[in-house]
Amino acid sequence: MDTTVMIEKHPQIKDLMAEQPIVWRNPDYGESAELPLTRADIFDAVVRWERFAPFLAVAFPETAAMNGVIESPLLKLQHMQPAWEAINHQSLAGQLYLKADSQLPISGSIKSRGGIYEVLKFAEQVAMTHTDLTYMDDYSVLATPKYHDLFAQYGVIVASTGNLALSVGIMAATFGFKTTVYMSHDARQWKKDKLRANGVTVEELNTDFSSVIPVARAAAAKDPHTHFVDDEGSRDLFLGYAVAGVRLQHQLKTQGIPLDDQHPVVVYLPAGVGGSPSGVAFGLKMIMGDAIYPVFCEPTHVPSVTLGMMTKLNEKIAVQDIGLDGLTAADGLAVSRPSRLAGKIMRTLLLGTATFEDNELYKYLTKLLDTEQVMVEPSAAAGFTAIAPITNQFPELAGKNVTHIVWATGGDMMPESERQLDYDLGRKLLLAVEGE
Ligand SMILES: *Cc1c(COP(=O)(O)O)cnc(C)c1O
């Protein structure tokens, strides 16, 4: 690809190539567009989750207290807000919240939305085809040996850097599906161990993640009884994430958080392949409309969705095409090529993106633990890095009473030793800037 021509058209590509943090304003934001998915698709997913709630409450006892509903709390960050202001040397107009998907059951990450939903949908389809199950049955029956034996004749395959593997792998194996997860060499050992302990076959490939997906896809294509969860373009994954729009709308209301023209809500989502943040953002916009503003956050070394949307080449361009190495310490964000759905559906729905340097993540995760006793994984702290650049560069948000929601995408399953390493790194970095 000729980068000189690209820079002429999109001058910010020069900053991307120099690994400079940027804010990209989406020029098509707010235009009308024909979308391939609708509100009706979201509500179809909402009722499928409801049908499965009795099953989930049985299969995962930790969800029983919530009656089998898999949802995370929206936490007000009263003590983190002044810490954020100190790090950024500026005051924050409005309120700061954390959407703690790090605490979602089963995978401890946002992947419990899309990944689990796609497996539920596949299980329902198999059960409906081969048994007398009806939509009004109590789905806890799906946890019985009769169904386990049926599901054992089918397979589920997914390629993942980690968290999607945990959600799809644990869910599929619990149903009884023959479950195989393809992972790249850099995937964390503890994630592989946990999957194997749950009866999942883990195939490790000595390549980077983008090359793992075609291998997994090819393996699934060989067996008509095997379902492939396609992180680069699955509609079901996307809709599983989109249900968050319905859930967050309710949380805003019950927590008395206003949402209107004078009280905008900005939601900061870390993006890897772009599937989970796009699914969530789509749900938020379809359910709540104009006053909610989704923003994506990406590492300066892996701005894959930013590059895809800016050039409108979407999945046809990878960060290596502009000379970047695609490396980041943030698990889940080291994806060089965006999904086929993300850029297309986000074209008119995404306010913009902001890129950040990896070190920033650690400062915020350490402060978050210090001030609020909430631990997240590095990628899940990405939202904190985008608040200042976005509020400073979008005058339409100035002077308004903004609610800022950082979407904390993962962390609860991290072993203590990893948490300690991340926390200590953040301490060291803070000490260097604050002399704390
Ligand atoms: C998967 C993941 C993301 C990014 O999601 P994509 O769908 O790849 O864009 C961000 N943070 C965490 C913790 C994740 O697991």
Automatic annotation (TrEMBL):
EC top class, in one word? lyase
Q: Which domain of life is it from?
A: Bacteria
| Signal peptide location | none
Cofactor dependency:
pyridoxal 5'-phosphate
Q: What HAMAP family does the entry give? A: D_Ser_dehydrat
Q: Which residues carry this modification: N6-(pyridoxal phosphate)lysine?
A: K111
InterPro entries per the record?
Answer: D_Ser_am_lyase, Ser/Thr_Dehydratase, Ser/Thr_deHydtase_PyrdxlP-BS, TrpB-like_PALP, TrpB-like_PALP_sf
> Which E.C. number(s) belong to this protein?
4.3.1.18
Q: Which reaction does it catalyse?
A: D-serine = pyruvate + NH4(+)
One matching Pfam family is: PALP
Gene Ontology molecular functions: D-serine ammonia-lyase activity; hydro-lyase activity
> Domain Tryptophan synthase beta chain-like PALP, which positions?
75-402
Provide the GO biological process annotations.
Answer: D-amino acid metabolic process
Q: What is the name of this protein?
A: Probable D-serine dehydratase
Membership in a protein family? Belongs to the serine/threonine dehydratase family. DsdA subfamily.
Q: Which keywords belong to this entry? A: Lyase, Pyridoxal phosphate
Note the SUPFAM superfamilies from the entry: Tryptophan synthase beta subunit-like PLP-dependent enzymes
